[in-house]
Amino acid sequence: MTPIGGPTLAQERKIVTEIPGPVSKELLERKAAAVAAGVAHTVPIAAVAAGGGVIVDADGNSLIDLGAGIAVTSVGNSHPKVVEAVQRQAAAFTHTCFMISPYEGYVAVAEALNRLTPGDHAKKSALFNSGAEAVENAVKIARKFTGRQAVVAFDHAYHGRTNLTMALTAKSMPYKSGFGPFASEVYRAPMSYPFHDGLSGEDAAKRAISVIDKQVGAANLAAVIIEPIQGEGGFIVPADGFLNAISEWCTANGVVFIADEVQTGFTRTGAMFASELFGIVPDLITTAKGIAGGLPLAAVTGRAEIMDATHAGGLGGTYGGNPIACAAALAAIEAFETEGFIENAKTIGEALFTRLGAMQEADARIGEVRGRGAMIAVEFVKPGTHEADPALASAVAKGCIAQGVVVLTCGTYGNIIRFLPPLTIPSDLLDEGLDVVASVLEGLK
Ligand code: PMP
Questions:
Q1: Checking CA distances to 97, which of 75, 105, 177, 373 falls within 20 to 30 Å?
Q2: How far is the CA of 158 from the centre of ligand 1 (A)?
Q3: Distance linking the first and last C-alpha atoms of the chain
Q4: Atom of ligand 1 nearest to the CA of 157
Q5: What is the pLDDT of residues 272-311, one digit of tens each?
């Protein structure tokens, strides 16, 4: 019988076999035989149910989830409103193709995004299936609007794995290596990374703008794309003023400023969108991940005049804005707006900062604890230096998983553990997860 997930699932860490257990092992063997080797996994279990703050595997182990499927299940897995909306929509119709026969769910999601994203200017949205697809389309739209071709992305950026987004993504291995040639007219600027560059936001912006100005030239530049807090690159929070200066330079030079909020969006950082934390109003904003409680949906939202620059038929796709994904998004958005998720993210963030900060004080291997809301990371270094220690980050993640706590690594140098739990995780479970992290770290001394 299929186990029932969602918030009624027992909120406990329970390890009844080694991980992976025998049933999970069997699936992983089938996976190795049937699924392309490039599609790797980090937690060796066969998931059968999830909800609140746990993932249950086929052997009956219940793991504490501090990753939310990479910032997707912010409203929790199988949120009751999402489940109900999906069931209702699946019974009504599953697909017409919005480009053939429009339906209300898509329009209502666009209306909600236009209302919720930063800025009170007139906005429009278009829906897609994945974060990478949203980014691709934001770039298309910016090029069409400006009549220019160049795009600037930043060091440590992650924007996806399709051809254009690989070019925008900074890290070669594993995202780009061997997959070239990449899309042209993509340029890279230095990011503000206070832990490593020690620069003020103003100075880091001057450095970036000088590179953009001299190596690309505003007259050729369609768009600058940036994650307000970088995700895969290492939860890098730019110094105060950096994003504002870049955004102002874009406005002054007729360049479309795109905030990629695929990972930071929908209350994750303690605000509906991370742009709000920095007081920036992007021209375009890309969203995905948390938007639909786990269903595949993505969007580009932005200034109506930019969004409308594209000729009819220039944007779209067979599945973009699928009715079931839209129904899920409307339910998730209602939950974000009415169930205290911004407060949850802040509370989780405070707990993470307190516990991880205490660990840092007693441990020279922790170089920095940073982030906003429920998007917090620990950067591991060789004690007394800023030199990355990826082996330690990887050992911590493996040790935690073996004890039933799912944590994810990230970072250009692979030396970062990131915490981005579902925002429905009970506080005692979060504490227990952090106890495990502390004891694993202690054991690696
Ligand atoms: N942009 C950012 C900031 C992301 O974090 C991600 C996914 N990690 C993407 C784009 C790509 O999203 P997807 O995997 O849905 O294509």
A1: 75
A2: 7
A3: 44
A4: 3
A5: 999 999 999 999 999 999 999 999 999 999 999 999 999 9
